[in-house]
Design a protein that fits this description.
Distance between the termini: 35 Å
Number of strands: 0
Number of domains: 1
Order of helices and strands: HHHHHHHHHHHHHH
Oligomer: single chain
Shape: globular
Number of helices: 14
Length: 292
């Protein structure tokens, strides 16, 4: 299994007036499509999975407050990627306050011990976020040359180091990351309890949202196609999500349409909502509102 398994975008030739997504866009809104898949990858490590599933932080639970949780995660991505030192420090304090309540004890049903300040667990989460970024780039921009891949990898380090992971824990280069990723896959396991927790996320089944049955079925099928398409096969197997050549063709056709739309959008729309989240963070800091 390689770092990326999604089909890369075809090479663009002669884009009009320099339009089209590029690495200079940074985070793009289309990355939200891969969000559920990335959550599954993160929680596939048992310490992360049970830490999230048994979290005492009611307001941060993705199963009960998915929109709020999504805003927190997207803000973290924006802060880690493009935030100032002051913004990173403010967000780190807020996240640390929430993480202080996430640890296993005698009441935990988890088969593993966990603590949200565990640097190894944080490194895995950062690695999943970087991996997801690679897949988004390949899907909506195309294959990276060596120089671009190295730049993208260097830019990915803050996804882990913005919290407690020291820089020396981030694999030194892409080859070292590949080795770390392959070794970490040996620790991946999604049991029945975590799988049941994750399936509504995979299907984008929002708590409290009711639709007519036929619409709900189509809605969930659409999101399961996207989520499963962005998952490496190991994680599909752990989730018991079916995938075959026909699923792949449908996923590739859908991504081709979305890629075309993304390329013709003005940059500020391609970057939404990430381009407004840092301003929202500053507004919340000034108003004394919670950041997570």
């Amino acid at each position: 299994m390689t770092i990326s398994e999604v089909s890369p975008a075809p090479v663009r030739r002669g884009s009009v007036l320099g339009r089209g997504a590029s690495i200079d866009d940074g985070l793009m809104g289309v990355a939200l499509l891969a969000g559920p898949a990335n959550v599954i990858m993160q929680l596939a490590l048992p310490g992360v999975g049970y830490g999230v599933m048994e979290s005492r932080v009611e307001s941060g639970r993705v199963d009960r407050h998915p929109i709020k949780r999504a805003r927190t995660t997207f803000t973290y991505l924006a802060v880690a990627s493009r935030g100032s030192d002051e913004q990173k420090a403010a967000f780190r304090r807020a996240v640390n306050g929430a993480h202080a309540q996430v640890y296993s004890n005698e009441e935990s049903k988890s088969p593993v011990k966990y603590n949200a300040f565990d640097k190894d667990l944080q490194l895995w989460v950062g690695a999943c976020l970087y991996k997801g970024g690679v897949d988004i780039y390949r899907t909506f921009i195309g294959e990276m040359d060596e120089q671009t891949a190295d730049r993208h990898y260097a830019d990915g380090m803050p996804l882990a180091t913005t919290l407690q992971v020291p820089e020396q824990m981030w694999p030194a280069d892409r080859a070292a990351f590949e080795q770390y990723w392959q070794e970490s896959l040996e620790k991946v396991h999604i049991d029945d309890a975590v799988r049941e927790y994750l399936y509504p996320i995979a299907a984008n089944r929002l708590r409290g949202m009711r639709m007519p049955r036929f619409l709900q079925k189509r809605h969930e099928a659409f999101w399961l196609l996207i989520t499963t398409g962005f998952l490496p096969q190991r994680f599909r197997d752990e989730m018991r999500l079916p995938w075959d050549a026909e699923h792949q063709r449908r996923f590739d056709r859908l991504m081709a349409v979305l890629r075309t739309v993304n390329n013709v959008l003005p940059r500020f729309l391609r970057q939404f909502p990430f381009n407004v989240l840092l301003k929202d963070l500053d507004r919340r800091v000034r108003a004394g509102k919670p950041l997570v």
